[in-house]
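Design a sequence for this backbone.
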C-alpha cells in the first residue's frame, strides 16, 4: 500500500502520515496486521489499535552513501557547497554543526529513486540514509561510512520493525507475540516515552541513542537541536533494571502492548525516558523545539 508519508513531513508537521492508510485497513478489517518502521509510528495510536510486537533491532545508525565509483569515506572530504541529500531534519540539524561547508537539501522517494538521483542524475554529492534500510534491501555494500551516535543521534525507534494489530484481536496477538524482542522493546519504550514527554516527532530535530547491557543497565542519551545547528541540548541517563518478579499483561505504554514483559522492567524503561526528557525541558528544550519547528516550516525544504 502507498502512504502519504513521503511528502514533506517536516513541512506538514504530521507524525502519522506514514501509517494512516495501513491503520484504516486494520480498523476496517481489510488486513489483520501491519508492519511499520517503528520510527514512523506515533506514540499515540487509534484507540482500538496497538503495537503487538517489536522485532529485533537492526543497526539504528545513519550512513553516508557516495556515488558509485567514489573512493570518499567521509563528508569532511567534500568541497564547500557540496549537496547532501536527506529527508530528515534531525540529520540536517546535527550534521550542520560539524560540516558547515556543506549544503544539506531534501531528497524524496524510495531508496532506489534516491540512489538513482545520486548515481545517475547527479543531483547530490552524497546521501545520508538509515543503515537498517540499506541492509534490509541487500544494499549494505553502498554504505560508505556509518555515522557514530556521538556525531549523529538516531531517530526514536530507528532500525526496529513494529507489528501493529487490533487490540481486541486475541488470535493475531498470540501469533505476533512470539516475534517480540525483549531488549529492543525495552529500549524503544524508553526512547518513545522520551519523545512523547518532549512532544516531539518526525517534524522536529530530536535524536536518541540507547543500549541495554547484559548486566541489565539500560542507558539512554537524548538531544534536541536547532534547525540551523547552532544550538543543542543533550543529556543522558541510565537505570539498572530490577530482576523480573511479575509479567505484565495487557497494558499499553506509548502505543506498545507489553505482554510477556516484566512489569518492573517496563515501568523503569518508561520512567527513564520521561526523566531524561524532563532534564532537557528544564534546560529549555521545549522552546528550542518550537523554534526548530518554525524554522523548518519557513525553509520549506
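Sequence:
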Amino acid at each position: 500500500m502507498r502512504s502519504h508519508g513521503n511528502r514533506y513531513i517536516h513541512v506538514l508537521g504530521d507524525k502519522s502520515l506514514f501509517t494512516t492508510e495501513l491503520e484504516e485497513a486494520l480498523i476496517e478489517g481489510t488486513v489483520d496486521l501491519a508492519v511499520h518502521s517503528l520510527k514512523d509510528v506515533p506514540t499515540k495510536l487509534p484507540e482500538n489499535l496497538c503495537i503487538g510486537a517489536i522485532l529485533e533491532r537492526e543497526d539504528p545508525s545513519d550512513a553516508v552513501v557516495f556515488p558509485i565509483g567514489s573512493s570518499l569515506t567521509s563528508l569532511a572530504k567534500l568541497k564547500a557547497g557540496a549537496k547532501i541529500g536527506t529527508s530528515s531534519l534531525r540529520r540536517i540539524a546535527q550534521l550542520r554543526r560539524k560540516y558547515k561547508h556543506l549544503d544539506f537539501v531534501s531528497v524524496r522517494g524510495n531508496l532506489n529513486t534516491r540512489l538513482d538521483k545520486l548515481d545517475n542524475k547527479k543531483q547530490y554529492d552524497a546521501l545520508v540514509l538509515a543503515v537498517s534500510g540499506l541492509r534490509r534491501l541487500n544494499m549494505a555494500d553502498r554504505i560508505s561510512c556509518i555515522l557514530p551516535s556521538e556525531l549523529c543521534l538516531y531517530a526514536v525507534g530507528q532500525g526496529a520493525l513494529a507489528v501493529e494489530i487490533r487490540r481486541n484481536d486475541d488470535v493475531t496477538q498470540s501469533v505476533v507475540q512470539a516475534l517480540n524482542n525483549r531488549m529492543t522493546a525495552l529500549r524503544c519504550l524508553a526512547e518513545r516515552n522520551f519523545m512523547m514527554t518532549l512532544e516531539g516527532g518526525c517534524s522536529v530535530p530530536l535524536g536518541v541513542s540507547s543500549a541495554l547491557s547484559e548486566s541489565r543497565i539500560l542507558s539512554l542519551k537524548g538531544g534536541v537541536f536547532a534547525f540551523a545547528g547552532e544550538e543543542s541540548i543533550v543529556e543522558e541517563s541510565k537505570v539498572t533494571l530490577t530482576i523480573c518478579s511479575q509479567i505484565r499483561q495487557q497494558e499499553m505504554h506509548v502505543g506498545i502492548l507489553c505482554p510477556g514483559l516484566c512489569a518492573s522492567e517496563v515501568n523503569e524503561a518508561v520512567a527513564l525516558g520521561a526523566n531524561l526528557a524532563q532534564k532537557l525541558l528544564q534546560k529549555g528544550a521545549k522552546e528550542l523545539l518550537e523554534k526548530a519547528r518554525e524554522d523548518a516550516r519557513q525553509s520549506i525544504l
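The mean pLDDT is 91.
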